[in-house]
Amino acid sequence: MDWNSEIEQEEMLTEEPQALTSAEQELIVAQNRDRLYKRAAAAATFFLIAAAALMVSFKLHEDFFDASSRFGLLMESVNAQEENKAYPKINVKAVFDDKEESRLVIPLDALADSANITIHEEFTKKKLTITLKEASEQIVDGIRMTGDSRIMDAVGIYRQHLDVVVEVYCKETYSYVTQNTGTALTINFSPLRDNYDAVAVVYIPYEDRSRLELPEWHQSLADFVSDNRIRLFMASDMQEAYTQQEVSAFAESVNADIVLGLDVSVDAAAQQTTAEAFCNTTYFMPDFNSAQLSVIFAETLVSKVQIDFLGFAEAQADMPLIYDATCPAAMLKISQSQKDADSVETVYKLNESLAAVIRDTLGSVYGKSVQ
Description:
By secondary structure, the chain is α/β, with parallel strands linked by helices. Helix content is 39%, strand content 28%. It is built from nine helices and 16 strands. The strands form four sheets. The chain has a six-stranded mixed sheet with strand order 12-11-13-16-14-15, sandwiched between helices. Strands 1-7-8-5-4 form a five-stranded antiparallel sheet, with no helix packed on it. Residues 1-17 have low confidence and may be disordered.
């Protein structure tokens, strides 16, 4: 017998793994299952915490996310308007009845829904632009309109793509109210000061005119001035290009009580966002002047926005809105750092605050309570 061969076989047998009993197998499975459950529980706990944190964050910033989304829709609407303007204008033949009734009447047999009617006031041109959306097939040649040549220099009507546009050029700047009976749109005109105790003009550069146009901000301003009998002319509401000179000349033509300006720019080299107030001290008014208005304007800004305020300066000829003003006038120039300008949330919060700054400044000047 080969003893060496038997020893090698015994060594090989001892190295082979022993078969597990069913009890041992069940124990190992149970241990693995417990470890798996613990890992799954930890993952679930982490997920719940993360989800809760996201929900809290979303709730805290719900207005921002919602407004940011609607701001995107607003910009789409603005772009759609620009695209619509590219379509040719096709004149609509109309018959005009000239009556001394201080009103314009447009038949609207098929346009009872006021949501299909928009009115923009191009006030530097003394023009009202009335858009009847998707009315090109309803408004036919020979439409009979009523106007008043004492108030209106000219009235034009044309089709543009799917819309019909009525342009009314007035002799002066008037107050107006609209009435839609379902069969006709009537615009009643009256002297500017008849329905208001004060007139204010706000300038925002034309290229930046969408800055404060989110519906709730716009409506907050509209409600405040309406409740307090203030006629507010917002340059940013105009769709046609305008300049500081034109807005300043308009303010003088209507004897505006105050003029406010907001100019936001971006300084790529700046480390932080700053603001500076400009006024016109050369045009002296004893009761209330530009210097006093600029202080109110600036104080309202710094109360609402964490910003490095650089102080006050005298407006020069390159700022005609203030330099040429014949009423109290003030401009806030805000220079954003690139970091702040690139942050959607920071820009949103700034714009929201600027809408409130205009409202609260008007409230302070006219002694009105601001809710």
